Amino acid sequence: MADESRRIDIGFQGGPVLPARVKQSSYEALHKALSKDRGDRWFELETLDSKVALDLSQVVYVRIDNEEQRVGF
Fold first, then answer.
1. Which of 19, 57, 61, 68 could share a disulfide with 11, CB 3.0–4.6 Å?
2. Overall pTM > 0.85
3. Contact at 8 Å (CB) between 27 and 8?
């Protein structure tokens, strides 16, 4: 699969949600970090426009948008 960009939403304890656009490889790295025993508490997520430091112990879910981007209504 090409390293195309995807929209994801990262949900945290307490309710806040962080939307981000990431490359597929960045999403897979986040997924792998969350799948580990969480010995590493912090993870640096590379988005298309920035880097975000995430406290993995506070992440409740990651939602990935599988729909194609559309222009218009």
1. 61
2. no
3. yes
